[in-house]
Amino acid sequence: LVARMRPFGTTIFAEMSALAVSTGAVNLGQGFPDTDGPPEMLAAAAEALRGGQNQYPPGPGIPALRTAVADHQRRFWGLEYDPDGQVLVTAGATEAIAATILALCEAGDEVVCFEPYYDSYAASIALAGAVRRPVTLRPAADGRYAFDPDELRAAFGPRTRLVLLNTPHNPTGKVFTVDELTLIAGLCQEHDVYAVTDEVYEHLVFTDAAGTHVPLATLPGMGERTLRISSAGKTFSCTGWKVGWVSGPARLVSAVTRVKQFLTFVNAAPLQPAVAVALALPDSYYDDFRAGMQQRRDQLVGGLVDAGFDVLTPEGTYFVTADIAPLGGRDGVEFCRALPERCGVVAVPTQVFYDDPEAGRRLIRFAFCKRPEMLTEAVTRLRALA
Ligand code: PMP
Ligand code: GLN
């Protein structure tokens, strides 16, 4: 294995899901729903499979999906992208992130990102031979995660090539505010760098959040330097389909396309028309999806508090982070490895998403994208810890 990939072992999600299977625990670790997405979407996929859409689709994605992606971004965020040249379909957001970094970063270039970060960020940056410059999100007095603006300013320098921003943020559930985004946008322009945004949870911002979801690309001067990434997996509960996309200025999307051609060439033909159908669903689908997830959030947050955890209520995503200190826990990795044996529940240690493990030592993450009866069962089991 090449030296730059040696620090990366098996992903924590694979390790913890395997542990859930081998112990029969309730799996609130890896973020995937335990119910299917919209029936219209599933029917469209079945029809495409039977209808012969089973060969290589066009490289950038089928026109119907690229059009649906552009329409969706206009409808929800007022963003204008030309389906021909400004939208590229990828194998999930994961491929979009990797291809984008590989397309934009020379070896030694720096990528500013916020830790804890989604695990593929560090690996994709390493694949490109680039260097990550993490800025730490920490629980603040108001119960939200925050970063120090000076730490962010200091992360920018002559080698900075891009900022990689995930909002709503996994694993913290933080939704970046307009003020925070404005600061980030200002620094991108001052240092003339690109922004790459991972917005896979764009439809999961709860009604009691401090703000709504604001794509960084909508801020003045940002459209021309932002590549915006999203995916069907979260919004339409089809994480196993791996259909994602990246949108942005034609010259940047063209650079990403160059790389993407040689990673996967094209993506699952029969799933693309189905995701196009899903994207065009009425607002009620999106509202119900969010409202259902908000109920589950409240159910799990309440249960975790009862079980004795210190909980930071998330403003978005389908994850909640909890501090294990009140339960006598000192290390999240140890705690999560023992949890299935102790009480039959799987969670993920947040620590592994920090460069500085101290910052997340006692934090663990639970996913609440599960049926209410599963959450009830998990909470009953967790109460036994006290
Ligand atoms: N980014 C974030 C923040 C995620 O949580 C995930 C997990 N789904 C991904 C990217 C990857 O998305 P996909 O499954 O579409 O590759
Ligand atoms: N995005 C999901 C999570 O954070 C799953 C990611 C994965 O399994 N690679 O849990």
Automatic annotation (TrEMBL):
- List, separated by semicolons, the cofactors it needs: pyridoxal 5'-phosphate
Q: Which UniProt keywords apply?
A: Aminotransferase, Pyridoxal phosphate, Transferase
Q: Which residues form the Aminotransferase class I/classII large domain?
A: 26-382
| Presence of the UniProt keyword Heme in the record | no
The UniProt entry, under CDD domains, shows: AAT_like
Q: Does the keyword Transferase apply?
A: yes
Query: Which parts of the chain span the membrane according to its record?
Result: none
User: Which GO terms fall under molecular function for this chain's record?
Assistant: transaminase activity
- Sorted alphabetically, which InterPro entries does this protein's record hold? Aminotransferase_I/II_large, Kynurenine-oxoglutarate_AT, PyrdxlP-dep_Trfase, PyrdxlP-dep_Trfase_major, PyrdxlP-dep_Trfase_small
NCBIfam families (alphabetical)? PRK07777.1
> What is the protein's given name?
Pyridoxal phosphate-dependent aminotransferase
